[in-house]
């Protein structure tokens, strides 16, 4: 099974949702069958690269609320984060995340994507480190297992992995994601938002069970026919979702 | 809260999903706050209006499987239906559902949409009644509380409610629905497939809690400012999903 998670480093509910999803995954009996892939999504592509606007200031300005009200908004999210054992600082900086996503694609190529994603969330939300500063960002990437030279090369070349980031974003839009986090199981089930761990566990369970059910009649056939049959039935109406055309009579 | 459910009468998992959703809704403490709206979706718009192809024949042809294998596929779905206490007959007819959706919009205008939807599912899946036959369809609609004359007028005028059906279908596509059933809570959370009742209950719970959390700082303000503030914060990142632009700093 494959779970793709569209998320942005600047997104509090992506940070919280990652922890909740991982709790749900840990409670899923067949967790060993699950591959998790990070997908890029920018909430604010127009944000300045070297951001220096405090998040509280951005919130107050964006929502037209007082500093106190922005703090109250943040403290609700901080509570949810604390509920997952996550640090959460409201004195962090708001900035552009395009370079962070480019590095996440480098990290994917090196097999340390999940480590880097966790490190970036932690640096931003728990430690309020300014990730718009190339030295800070490089240090975080190195902590996650990347080599400093490789990181600097990617940061210096704005085209490196840029197309990979944009491809992820196009796909999010094609799949109808209107916000993040957006979780997609086997390109069949879409779950939006930082849902409770139990919702994720049940969705994984359900996706697996209904896939197994859809494949069952096929499994009775000769092994040689199995793959073709699996694909056909998988495109149909046997896994809890009926797809257009699946009911067509010809 | 408002739950919109895109579904097709010809879709087994929509039929099963409706029962599961209603079980989840019944277990939701704030069920009285939930409004449920049916939305139109056709799995097979090309199907003949007065269909006379048995579903088993259609399945065997569509998936290139034997009659026995089609029966095995159907018996898996029948088991899931039985698990929800629903009748399920594999000797039903495959046909076009456009007129059924037009009648569901008439029923919405008359306040009996849910009754008609339940009656159509039952007639198709539990009773294998041929809904492509205008007399049968009219009888089912009358059982659900519509007047026979009104039903006949809508069936005779192909334009009646046709635009309403197409508008629903356009919206499904804009929201990124790739199949049905597709459940959307407050235009924020999307859930695909006939998930277990508990998944629906938890999603409702979560949607409500996070909405309450997002509104809380606003509730501390003057009542007069409340509505404006609610909308602003609702568009932001406080209900479990962060929307593009919500993080923009200006």
Describe the structure.
Two copies of one chain form a homodimer. Chain A has 250 residues and is of the alpha+beta class. Chain A folds into two domains: 2-194, Glutaredoxin, CATH 3.40.30.10; 199-234. Chain A is built from ten helices and six strands. Chain A has a four-stranded mixed sheet, sandwiched between helices. In chain A, helix 1 (12-26) links the parallel strand 1 (2-7) and strand 2 (35-40). In chain A, helix 1 (12-26) crosses helix 9 and helix 5 (113-126) crosses helix 6 (134-143). The longest helix of chain A has 23 residues, at 197-219. Chain A is globular and about 55 Å long. The interface between A and B is large, with 76 and 76 residues.
Main-sheet strand order of chain A equals 2-1-5-6
The largest β sheet of chain A comes out as: 4 strands, mixed
User: Count the strands of chain A?
Assistant: 6
Mean pLDDT of chain A: 83
Low-pLDDT segments of chain A: 216-236, 246-250
Level of helix content of chain A? 40-55%
Rg calculated over all Cα atoms of chain A: 20 Å
The tally of structural domains of chain A comes to: 2
The CATH class label of the largest domain in chain A is: Alpha Beta
Task: Give the chain pair forming the largest contact, with residue counts.
Answer: A-B, 76 and 76 residues
Order of helices and strands of chain A: EHEEHHEHHHHHEEHH
Q: Per CATH, which architecture of the largest domain in chain A?
A: 3-Layer(aba) Sandwich
How much of the residues of chain A is beta strand, in percent?
A: 5-15%
């Amino acid at each position: 099974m494959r779970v793709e998670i569209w998320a942005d480093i600047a997104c509090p509910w992506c940070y919280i949702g990652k922890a909740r999803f991982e709790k749900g995954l840990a409670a899923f009996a067949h967790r060993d069958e699950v591959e998790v892939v990070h997908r890029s999504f920018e909430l604010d592509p127009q944000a300045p690269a070297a951001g220096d606007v405090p998040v509280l200031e951005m919130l107050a300005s964006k929502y037209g609320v007082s500093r106190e009200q922005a703090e109250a908004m943040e403290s609700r999210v901080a509570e949810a984060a604390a509920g997952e054992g996550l640090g959460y600082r409201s004195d962090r900086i708001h900035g552009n995340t395009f370079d962070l996503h480019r590095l996440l694609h480098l990290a994917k190529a090196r097999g340390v994507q999940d480590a880097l994603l966790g490190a970036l969330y932690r640096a931003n939300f728990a430690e309020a480190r300014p990730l718009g500063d190339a030295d800070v960002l490089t240090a975080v990437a190195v902590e996650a297992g990347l080599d400093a030279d490789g990181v600097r090369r990617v940061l210096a070349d704005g085209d490196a992995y840029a197309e990979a980031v944009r491809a992820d974003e196009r796909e999010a839009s094609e799949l109808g994601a209107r916000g993040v986090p957006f979780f997609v199981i086997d390109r069949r089930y879409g779950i939006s938002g930082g849902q409770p761990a139990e919702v994720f566990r049940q969705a994984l369970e359900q996706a697996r069970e209904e896939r197994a059910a859809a494949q069952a009649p096929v499994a009775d056939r000769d092994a040689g026919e199995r793959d073709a049959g699996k694909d056909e039935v998988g495109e149909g109406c046997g896994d809890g979702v009926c797809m257009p055309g699946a009911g067509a009579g010809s």
